[in-house]
Write a structure and sequence with these properties.
Number of strands of chain A: 0
Number of helices of chain A: 20
Order of helices and strands of chain A: HHHHHHHHHHHHHHHHHHHH
Helix content of chain A: over 70%
Oligomer: homodimer
Distance between the termini of chain A: 20 Å
CATH topology of the largest domain in chain A: Annexin V, domain 1
Radius of gyration of chain A: 21 Å
Structural class of chain A: mainly alpha
Shape of chain A: elongated
Chain lengths: 316, 316
């Protein structure tokens, strides 16, 4: 379900590293070459290129890119070149200092990764920052946001398919009760959302829908302007329908007056190797226009070319 | 610092498995032989014996032990034979259903293991119970206990030596303030205890002592009968001086009217391969009598022999 395309015959990491070096040292940077190489290598291949490059030129590839590129194009190339867990470490750390917008990024890292991957991010966070991820998040967030985000990020959810229907029924009732009372920060509601497996939560939300006539997110929509409730809604969606969640992030980032490049970049680079095809299908369904078209209309230059290369519009 | 002793020439796992089988099938069980083998093999060796035994006799060694042994002796041999993370999975799961006594066991597993080990316990918990550890703990605990135990168990503490002294000073102040207000369940107090690295907490507690004239645990002692405060005190001790914490658990279990065999067994089997030598030194210092002597006086039969074999009294 990825949109990343890799050529049938991939050049060796040495060849790639040499061509990248050439793209940097010529008269002006050759952005086209950078895109044609990096945007068409998977994470293992990018890691090899980075390793070879460092050995050969005694400089981290990221450092060279940083010197040659600028603005949105620089950001997308740097973040894309990082290995996926390192990238999440960077995004999560940045998010701890960004308030409400950061809360959504943290939730996304907590809910749209596998348990094993999330744990690896926490391990890499140690190495990079000499602190733990939850330590920084707990330190920089407050109140209800902390109450939700810390357990989301520290959870190690069970990922098997087993579901307990009795529990789904009793916990759907708890959720309904707390939402009716507008007790959105109630510890039972948070406990259920942050500890149950995704399969179990799906069963609980289905039960909620069947028993109370509304989906849980419809009921949560009664308070649309509350930032915490909006984070709760995003959490439910990200856990149950990640592709719809990401479609919505893309839609908001593109439909805004002034594109939200950070969100656009983040979704494209974190999903291109995962489920971007499904997200594009959702986008087409919801907006009656292909994602590529809206990206083309809203962005420009090398940044646009990189985005289109990653979401799979080969003609661009 | 372990007290476990392993012979200079360890028999092969096949020989051990055969001798254990003989101990089971003869006229009456040969408990002495079981002790002489299992109490003198490290966890990797016990795992090999268990594997060979299962292949040879088509029965799990634990099952055979379960059939042949009983009461406290059975419990200690079974728990000892399990691999260390599996054993914590068993103890943690049992603890979720045991109220106050269970809270202390859960805290101990959270605080007296390395971050990596604790994560492995959480992984093994998935395999064994098809649920996550935090899911069960959050489900079975309430109020303040849940507020403390879930983040303790889900933390992945940074384990490096780096310490931020400015932070130690500001967080010591927060702790002092909350304790003075008897706000023991305050989210800031819980955040500090559950997310900071052990090195950082040590610095914070030292700062507390230096600035306010009392150790944090002395200040927490003002409310000695409150179960939650007593769990907080135990947490601080277990994080900063695990050997003193375990000495105290042993002392309480032995000095009680009626020995607390579960606690005694738990400490002996979980520490014999880790730091039991240090714990014994603390015990001697605090009680002016060797641990072995008190164990001998308070226990009997095969259970006593197994305990003494594990804490390193070879003459017993």
């Amino acid at each position: 379900m990825a949109t990343l395309t890799v050529p049938a015959e991939v050049p060796s990491a040495v060849e790639d590293a040499e061509l990248l070096r050439k793209a940097f040292i010529g008269w002006g940077t050759d952005e086209g070459r950078i895109i044609s190489i990096l945007a068409h290598r998977n994470s293992a291949q990018r890691a090899s290129i980075r390793q070879v490059y460092a050995e050969k030129y005694e400089e981290d590839l990221l450092k060279s890119l940083d010197k040659e590129l600028s603005s949105d194009f620089e950001r997308i190339v740097l973040l894309w070149t990082l290995c996926p867990t390192e990238r999440d470490v960077f995004l999560a750390n940045e998010a701890t200092r960004k308030g409400t917008a950061g809360h959504h990024v943290l939730m996304e890292i907590a809910c749209a990764r596998t348990s094993r991957f999330l744990f690896q991010v926490r391990e890499d966070y140690h190495s990079r920052f000499k602190r733990s991820l939850e330590e920084d998040v707990a330190h920089h967030t407050k109140g209800d946001f902390r109450k939700l985000l810390v357990p989301l990020l520290t959870a190690h959810r069970y990922e098997g398919p087993e579901v307990n229907l009795t529990l789904a029924s009793s916990e759907a009732k708890i959720l309904r009760e707390k939402i009716s009372e507008k007790a959105y920060n109630h510890e039972e509601l948070i406990r259920i959302l942050t500890t149950r497996s995704k399969a179990q939560l799906n069963a609980t939300f289905n039960h909620y829908n069947d028993s109370f006539g509304n989906s849980i997110n419809k009921d949560l929509k009664q308070d649309p302007k509350d930032d915490f409730v909006s984070l709760l809604r995003a959490t439910v969606k990200c856990i149950t329908y990640p592709e719809k969640y990401f479609e919505k992030v893309l839609r908001s980032s593109l439909k805004k007056v002034g594109t939200d490049e950070d969100a656009l970049t983040r979704v494209v680079i974190t999903r291109a190797e995962v489920d971007m095809k499904r997200i594009k299908e959702e986008y087409q369904k919801r907006n009656s226009v292909p994602l590529e078209k809206d990206v083309e209309g809203d962005t420009s230059g090398d940044y646009k070319s990189m985005l289109l290369a990653l979401i799979g519009n080969e003609s661009a």
